[in-house]
Design goal:
There is one protein chain. This protein is α/β, with parallel strands linked by helices. It has two domains: 119 residues, 3-Layer(aba) Sandwich (Rossmann fold), CATH 3.40.50; 191 residues, Rossmann fold. 36% of the residues lie in helices and 15% in strands. It is built from twelve helices and twelve strands. A seven-stranded parallel beta sheet has the order 8-7-6-9-10-11-12, sandwiched between helices. A five-stranded parallel beta sheet has the order 2-1-3-4-5. Helix 1 packs across helix 12 and helix 4 crosses helix 6. It is globular. The two termini are 24 Å apart. Bound molecules: nicotinamide-adenine-dinucleotide. Nicotinamide-adenine-dinucleotide (NAD) binds next to helix 4 and helix 6. Nicotinamide-adenine-dinucleotide binds next to helix 4 and helix 6.
């Protein structure tokens, strides 16, 4: 199939070309994101391949459908950036990669926790400058702490197991409980209980109308004083302004985020020579107890291999009129 890739970086080209055996599909890589302004680039293609911050809204769908696009292949798990109703109305199939190395994101959430807690990033910089002082680098033992997990699907489950391995008590909230996790020692509770009892809260649910701003002034006020909040899921799960207020009062003692509600204008770009116009992220960056990474939870070799393999196989299934096992239906 002739596939137009959007928001592509060098690693997308590398992995997709590597796994596109015998050049089965004809891949064209655009660096620009897909949105209604760039949708005209899809003329002459049959499929688009998009990532987390492409905007496949009604307007974009109108244009790509008129251009003959028949399938949208998301090279990610989340699908909050596509208007499924509009896609259905144009008979556009939407495919995704529901599961690729969930350990990649779960392990990144753990990296955020360990870095925030043991301040390895600060210690590293001190030592490089010949400063071997350990003043103000005190951490806490993870063992024995209570970790709250919101969303125990593939990534959340992997994260629960890691936390159990650290000797933590793991509380979880999900609309669907996992028997396997319960057997391993995870205790499911109401959301409020998880918020009240946890020393660390990690978000692993998808972004939906029900979960949007699940962390807000009201929910933050229920959390323990000095709680550590981790978000590797989707930025809009947290009301960032409310989180800033919580950080200023100390109610939030640490915050580690790999995602940010307005990340589309910032992430995956080198803006080191630009003036950041987003005052909310600029304030977040200024806190000594906030750690931000630019949506790289997924970014391991294993995950990139799986993303490329599954996305290409999704496209082949569509082309060969096979069952679309990874189709998202509205
Ligand atoms: P999944 O579908 O396996 O699990 C999601 C879980 O959330 C399910 O158990 C589901 O029941 C639960 N859930 C749904 N609605 C809920 C609600 N209202 N309240 C509580 N729980 C709810 O998904 P996954 O593979 O574990 O991925 C989770 C999320 O992680 C994705 O939606 C995506 O946004 C994010 N993600 C981030 C990265 C990254 O690089 N940072 C990479 C992949 C995925």
């Amino acid at each position: 199939m002739k596939v137009a890739f959007f928001s592509t970086k060098s690693y997308d080209k590398e992995y997709f070309n590597k796994f596109n055996h015998e050049n089965f599909h004809e891949l064209t890589f655009f660096e620009v994101p897909l949105n209604h302004q760039t949708a005209s680039l899809t003329a002459g293609f049959e499929a688009v391949c998009v990532f987390v911050n492409d905007e496949i809204d009604e307007k974009t769908i109108e244009i790509i459908s008129a251009n003959g696009i028949k399938v949208v292949a998301l090279r990610c798990a989340g699908f909050n950036n596509i208007d499924l109703k509009s896609a259905k109305s144009k008979n556009l199939k939407v495919l995704r990669v529901p599961a690729y190395s969930p350990e990649s994101v779960a392990e990144h959430a753990t990296a955020l926790i360990l870095t925030l807690n043991r301040k390895t990033h600060k210690a590293y910089n001190r030592v490089r400058e010949g400063n071997f002082s350990i003043e103000n680098l005190t951490g806490f033992n993870l063992s024995g702490k209570t970790v709250g997990v919101i969303g125990t699907g593939l990534i959340g489950a992997s994260f629960c197991k890691i936390m159990l391995g650290f000797g933590c008590k793991v509380l979880a909230y999900d609309i669907q409980e996992s028997v396997d996790l319960k057997e391993k020692g995870v205790q499911y509770k109401k959301l409020e209980e998880v918020l009240i009892q946890s020393n660390i809260i990690s978000l692993h649910c998808p972004l939906t109308p029900e979960t949007a701003h699940i962390v807000n002034a009201g929910s933050i006020s229920k959390m323990k004083d000095g709680v550590m909040l981790i978000n590797t899921s989707r930025g809009a799960l947290i009301n960032a302004q409310d989180a800033i207020d919580g950080l200023k009062t100390g109610q939030i003692g640490y915050m580690g985020i790999d995602v940010y509600e307005q990340e589309a204008d910032l992430f995956f770009q080198d803006l080191s020579e630009s003036v950041i116009q987003d005052d909310v992220i600029a304030r977040l960056i200024s806190f000594p107890n906030v750690l931000i990474t630019g949506h790289l939870g997924f970014f391991t070799k294993e995950a990139l291999e799986e993303i490329a393999t599954i996305t290409l196989s999704n496209l082949s299934d569509f082309e060969n009129v096979l069952m679309l096992k990874n189709e998202i239906k509205s």
